[in-house]
Write a structure and sequence with these properties.
This protein has about 350 residues and is an alpha+beta fold. Among the domains are: about 130 residues, abc- transporter (atp binding component) like domain (Coagulation Factor XIII, Chain A, domain 1), CATH 2.70.50.60; about 110 residues, Sandwich (Immunoglobulin-like), CATH 2.60.40. The longest helix is centred in the last third of the chain and has 29 residues. The chain is elongated.
Length: about 350
């Protein structure tokens, strides 16, 4: 009877040691030593498992998780946790889909810690709700198995009652030169508030470009990711031909909530000079300059001693064909012929008179 009790006690002791070993092996040696969350410009510090992040997020906000992971192995144990990664998931944030981010891998020596940062962008189109957040850290050891730790938080998203935003402002083309006839501006106005909006006045304007386009929007619903929450339109306009080169802003604005609030944005159109026009102007200037550079030069003929005025034409530019008129067809040749004939007649008359005088 005594022997049976001793055996029973020994067996129980062995089982306890085994269970303790298993429990130790299952105990994680990773922990989150510090977790801070920055929403927009505000930071919630030293969060613990199950906490709700203090600051509410708004559509378009950046949410930044600053997570410090620590190895709880002692220096005496001298165990390295390898290939540690940290990931965070915000559940159903993007139209019902999860969004997640993961750090790169790193190793942790016994007792060391490591800080990582994971960033998220809250979608512009998002429901006003409370979203679950799960943060995990996991790594491997040679003899102590996988080490893992999890933390859960809550993120609240709140929206202004009345808020419209211009989310698209695309010019095609974004730069014009010679062809200024057909510029298109594609735009989108979105209701990102929590209330429906009615009787919205939308305007596209630019004084320099001579644009003043208006639309009346009857309603934009407060329903994220639905067509009824958006106003989409493409406007066409012509840039004045005489407009100087430069950058010209185009303003897009919406008055809403009984004209008490205004959503506004802008986009710039780049206008440059037409290269063809520049070449034509340069050619005209060169022709005028060439004409003005013609000079009158006095030339002294050695045989007669007479001085004549000669117009010296500049050398024709390369690629220009110059046509020279034949001397036989020139006006000077014709005049010379006439003068020679007159002189011949006068000489003939003088000779005839001289003969008659000798006979008499």
């Amino acid at each position: 009877m005594v022997k049976i009790r001793i055996r029973y006690l020994v067996l129980s002791f062995i089982i306890l040691i085994f269970m303790a070993s298993v429990a130790y092996a299952q105990t994680t040696h990773l922990s989150f030593s510090d977790v801070d969350v920055k929403v927009g410009s505000k930071t919630s510090k030293n969060l613990r498992n199950g906490d709700t992040i203090n600051d509410e997020a708004e559509p378009g906000d950046t949410v930044e998780f600053r997570i410090e992971v620590k190895s709880n192995f002692t220096s005496a144990e001298d165990v390295e946790i390898e290939d540690v990664t940290v990931d965070a998931t915000i559940e159903e944030l993007d139209d019902g889909d999860d969004v997640d981010e993961e750090s790169s891998e790193f190793d942790l020596d016994a007792g060391d810690d490591k800080r990582v940062t994971l960033k998220f962008q809250v979608p512009i189109e998002v429901d006003e709700d409370t979203f679950n957040v799960e943060i995990n850290a996991e790594g491997d050891t040679d003899n102590n198995g996988t080490q893992k730790v999890t933390m859960k938080l809550k993120l609240e998203v709140e929206k202004e009652s009345h808020l419209l935003k211009v989310i698209k402002k695309t010019l095609s083309p974004a730069e014009v030169s010679c062809n200024r006839k057909n510029v298109q501006l594609s735009t989108s106005l979105l209701n990102i508030g929590s209330e429906d909006e009615e009787d919205i006045n939308f305007q596209v304007s630019s004084t320099d470009l001579g644009i003043d386009l208006k639309d009346s929007i009857s309603e934009l619903r407060a329903e994220p990711n639905e067509p009824e929450s958006k106003f989409l339109k493409t406007y066409s306009f012509k840039v004045p031909d005489e407009l100087e080169a430069g950058s010209y802003p185009i303003t897009l604005s919406a008055l809403y909530d009984d004209d008490r609030k205004k959503a506004e944005d802008s986009v710039a159109l780049s206008v440059s000079d037409c290269p063809t026009a520049k070449k034509e102007t340069k050619s005209q200037e060169q022709t005028t300059k060439t004409s003005e550079e013609s000079e009158e030069v006095e030339v002294v003929t050695p045989t007669t001693g007479r001085t004549t005025a000669t117009v010296v034409q500049p050398t024709a530019p390369a690629g220009t064909t110059v046509t020279e008129e034949s001397f036989l067809k020139s006006n000077a040749f014709v005049v010379g012929i006439i003068i020679a004939e007159v002189v011949a007649v006068i000489v003939g008359i003088v000779l005839v008179i001289s003969l008659f005088r000798r006979k008499g």
